[in-house]
Design goal:
Elements: H1 2-10, H2 12-31, H3 41-50, H4 58-63, H5 67-70, H6 79-94, H7 96-103, H8 106-137, H9 156-183, H10 188-198, H11 201-211, H12 218-240, E1 242-249, E2 252-254, E3 257-259, E4 263-269, H13 276-295, H14 300-308, H15 315-336, H16 339-348, E5 351-352, H17 360-385, H18 387-395, H19 405-429
Length: about 425
Amino acid sequence: MLSAFARAFQTPDLRKKLLFTLGIMVLFRLGSHIPIPGVNFEAVNVCVTASKKSGLFGLVNLFSGGALLQLTIFALGIMPYITASIILQLLTVVIPRLEALKKEGQAGTAKITQYTRYLTIALAVLQGTGIVATASSGALFSGCPLANQIVPDNGVFRTAVMVITMTAGTTVIMWLGELITDRGIGNGMSLLIFTSIAAQFPSNMWAIKQSGTIGGGWVEFLSVVAVGVIVVMLVIFVEQAQRRIPVQYAKRMIGRRAFGGTSTYIPLKVNQAGVIPVIFASSLLYIPALVVQLTNSQAGWAVWISRNFIKGDHPIYMATYFLLIVFFAFFYVAISFNPEEVADNMKKYGGFIPGIRAGRPTAEYLNYVLTRITWPGSLYLGLIALIPMIALVAFGQQTNFPFGGTSVLIVVGVGLETVKQIESQLQQRNYEGFLR
């Protein structure tokens, strides 16, 4: 990997793309430290220092690189865009118009991207309004004595300015991601998420060392590093694992020329759903606790939710989280991969799986294989997501534990994809042809 980056910096055009991408990433991190107008920044710093848990907003704070709890202009981060992309992807299966646009190729994809941008802005307005209202009520930092002083002015104009600033920040992040995709090394949105998560690793590791009690904290620090190396190796191994379904295409005579007769394969990844099931399960588990926090109810159901679904180390919470991840893994694979469509396309172009009849038997075989490999993929996702909760029990660290759950899945996945893109561009530029 390091040799690929070294060779990329030796190539002039790739070096420009890498430096441009690094500049955008620095600009993105700079915006994550500029507070929005109307916020008492001193009170925010006191509450962030006193708060040991990110509470109900941990997922959004993760994707914003810690900017949410700092109430900066990039407080919403890339989360509205991720949510909009997931919603559009789900609606593509339900709404025939969107499905037709998806099949139109590049023009249809451009329209779906435009719809995603509009939905991102709408979601940013909703989320920004909710965060400003939560910060004004003091619920953003429950237990902090200065929580009610974070937003001194609760007027309509000041609130509108704060919401508009957060929405504009999300729009700028969207634009920066597209700049990386067009003029940088590509995969812009994913690289911004990678930047947000990786930026928190050093501070989280140092916090574990400072809070440790054995050997001045170095035993806990080295233990977390060892666990992190093992988890990263496991994630890389599973993310690269795939089941290759062999496909052969029959020869066709067109005039005097023969076409086809080639052999290829359909790569079915073990973790076909990626990190989406973890995001779905986390978001769904936040809803009951968020309802209790906003309503301040003392009913029996509210007390039960507060006892079992607020803290991540509770067995009921962990079991529910694990089962939801397994369920959403199968759900997302079912809506993202259509065996019948793949079988019809193979039949249309004369392709077949050796030993399997074309048409419906091929679709049934693909569905059977996909179900079999989704089981280990979903169990792997559930175990990886439970690592921060296990760390909470073992070390008393949850939000400061960097190697687990969504963070490692995204960092390793984006890192592998970025390296592949750089290597593919290097191969295109260093290819030796027949004429020298």
